[in-house]
Amino acid sequence: MSQYKINKLSEVAFPAILVATSLGYLIYSLLLGAPISEGLPSPLFFPTVLGVAALLLSTTLLYRAILSFKDSSLETSKKEAATKETTKRPALIVIATIAYISIFSHAGYIISSLLYIFAIISIFSNLRRPLITALGSIIITTMGLVVFEHIFRIRLPGILG
Q1: d(Cα 139, Cα 130) in Å, to the nearest integer?
Q2: Fewer CB atoms < 10 Å away: N or C end of the chain?
Q3: Greatest Cα-to-Cα distance within the chain, rounded to the nearest angstrom
Q4: Are 15 and 62 spatial neighbours (Cβ–Cβ below 8 Å)?
Q5: Is the pTM of this model over 0.85?
Q6: Where do transmembrane segments lie in this chain (predicted)?
Q7: CA atoms of 21 and 58, how far apart (whole Å)
Q8: How far apart are CA 9 and CA 12, in angstroms?
Q9: What is the pLDDT of residue 81?
Q10: What region, left, alpha or beta, does residue 40 occupy, with left being phi > 0 and alpha being psi -120 to 50 degrees?
Q11: Rounded to 5 degrees, what are φ and ψ at 52?
């Protein structure tokens, strides 16, 4: 197998892993319980919506990767180096998301969301301004808390569930 085919195959492999991860997340969120109970969104509504969105977006990414696999030409070594750097970020996002899901029920919404949002902003900004990143994390977490607790009337888990 030529180097070209191996590089193109790796461009399709990561989106395929994202699709599998998103599907697993969606299935797991549905196994936890009904996202809607008594006509109102339950605490499981948001994870289900997030799973559906992740599955749709990752499927779109896989579809685009397959299309580019069919009709793209050989890349230069500079573009290959850039590709390696761009695949690093999605991998870090997947790792951060898995960590968020893992600690959510134990650490609660506030702590887990603060850490997750800080990590995601840091991944995209290369942690250039940690104080602004921390402030943004606090603001976004607070907005999420207000939306779910006060507008949707969905009680989010605190520390230790």
Answers
A1: 14
A2: N
A3: 57
A4: yes
A5: no
A6: 12-32, 44-63, 92-125, 131-152
A7: 9
A8: 5
A9: 56
A10: beta
A11: -65, -45
Which pair of tokens denotes residue 98?
A: 């898995």
Residue 7 clears pLDDT 70, i.e. is over it: no
Type of residue numbered 114 = L
Query: Which residue do the tokens 């520390």 mark?
Result: 159
Q: Which residues pair with 36 in a beta bridge?
A: 41
Residue with tokens 């969120």: 29
Residues 6+ apart with CB under 8 A from 97: 116
**Which tokens is 118 given?**
């800080």
CA count, 13 A, side-chain hemisphere, 93: 19
Report yes or no: 115 and 139 within 8 Å, Cβ to Cβ.
no
| Local structure of residue 41 (DSSP, 8 states) | E
Tokens read off for 153: 């009337």
Hunting for tokens 């230069």 — which residue is that? 76
Is the pLDDT at 137 greater than 50, yes or no?
A: yes
Angstrom distances, CA of residue 19 to CA of 63, 75, 122: 10, 25, 24
Percent helix, strand, coil in the chain (nearest 5)? 80, 0, 20
